[in-house]
Amino acid sequence: MASSSTSSLNLHSLPKASSGFGQWRRTGLNPESLGSSVSRNRLCLSPVVVLNRSPRLPVIKASYNSEGGSKRSSRVYKESQAASGFPNAPVQQIASSVLPLGSFAVVTFVLWKVVEKFMSPKAPKTSAGENKSSSQGVKWSIGAGTNLLQGFAAKVDREAKQRLNEFAKELRSFRSVDMSGCNFGDEGLFFLAESLGYNQTVEEVSFSANGITAAGVKAFDGVLQSNIMLKVLNLSGNPIGDEGAKTLCATLMENSSIEILQLNSTDIGDEGAKEIAELLKRNSTLRIIELNNNMIDYSGFTSLAGALPENNTIRNLHLNGNYGGALGANALAKGLEGNKSLRELHLHGNSIGDEGIRALMAGLSSHKGKLALLDLGNNSIAAKGAFYVAEYIKRSKSLVWLNLYMNDIGDELKKIADALKQNRSIATIDLGGNNIHAEGVNAIAQALKDNAVITTLEVGYNPIGPDGAKALSEILKFHGNVKTLKLGWCQIAAKGAEHVADMLRYNNTISVLDLRANGLRDEGASCLARSLKVVNEALTSMDLGFNEIRDDGAFAIAQALKANEDVTVTSINLGNNFITKFGQSALTDARDHVLEMTEKEVEIFF
């Protein structure tokens, strides 16, 4: 092989090509010039073209030597071209169709990549030691709705900043601004607090229920000290806790404008109450402080009580829904003895009990100021406690509003009724939910006979029955000065409604009547409807909700409204009854008739 003058190479497998000529062109050889240009001892190539039609073609072997190589090569090329059987014309047609489609696909792919590069948000830079996520541009979280694109998050952030800017503009433009429930948190408060500094416009602002914590309260430092216009600050519903109360009080030590501070439901405990007590000792501008529904116990009550003798400006103290108990009430009583400024004391829901009431009434009796409002609702006061309350009522000359709602006084209410005969200051008294029966309400009725001061009487949620309704109605026919009478959930039934209706024929003071949930049915509604036909210049509002009234009752009321040309009623509530569309239609027609005939509007609620 080495000494032979002829060299040969067999190619058994070559890639498919569009034509034999094209295959040679890609290899850089010109088959027509092989005969003249291939020099001696050069390799002779035997092209093999594999067609789809023929899985395999026989190998064509071409040999060259020093003599006659040119002729043989020409012959071999022509034979290979004939053996391939690949026409040139169809190949050109296929190429002319495929090439534009391929070019279009390539250009589309490139443009897509360019658009994707510019439109996709950039992933945050990571340190060299961190592994890059395969899903850059996406924030992943197990929280529902938190797997957001950064572009969307940025949009939300822009919208939040825009809203904060609008809030800031409001703070600089209006005297009263309510931003409750916006949930802007600590960061939002830091942004908005700047608008309060040296603000000469806003006087009242509410930041309640915004997720503000103790850290956020620090935003007021350096701001409230320079504000001389803000009078009302509401931070209720924010979990600032004791730490936040401490920070806020330190800031308000140097504030000379805020008169009302609302810190209801803010998780303040005894330590926070202690800080507020120190504020009351030094601040001389606060008039109202609200600490309802917190976690203030006996210790906190003691701290606040200790501040009362040293403060001569506080008017209203709200401590509803805390944990003062009997000990807290006892401590508060001692503080009240030395205070002259307090006008309202709200202690609803503190489980004070009879012993606590005894101490508190003693302290209020020695109080040198003029207390006008006392809220003792839901404090487990029984018959014994009612005695202490009655003794205070007899001596008080300034008390205007008394709430004893939801205690357990029962028919021992007679002690309070006797005290009301001597009292000439109380205008509103709430005795609801005290398990009072007909005997107890009869005692109250007798007190009203000689008392022209009481204008609002609440005896709802007591099982007084038809007899109690009769006792009260008989007195109110011609006596008393009651303008608002509330008898809801009193079990008076249709028989009791008959007594009330008879009373309305003669009474000329009652303007608001509440008879909800008394089982009046159609019979009771018809009795009341007959009283509406009579001219009553006082009655303007009647509530008959939850009374199982059906269409017949509705028809009776509708006819009464049409019959009375001088009707003064402007509101009738018939909600939560069994009135169908027919009864509703009758009432609507009656309302339209009254409007057309008297030009008076009557609101009827279904």
From TrEMBL:
The keyword Iron does not apply. It holds the Pfam family LRR_6. The keyword Repeat applies. InterPro entries: Leu-rich_rpt (IPR001611), LRR-containing_regulator (IPR052201), LRR_dom_sf (IPR032675). It comes from the Eukaryota. Keywords: Repeat. Gene3D superfamilies: Ribonuclease Inhibitor (3.80.10.10). This is Protein NLRC3. It comes from Camelina sativa (False flax). The gene is LOC104768933.
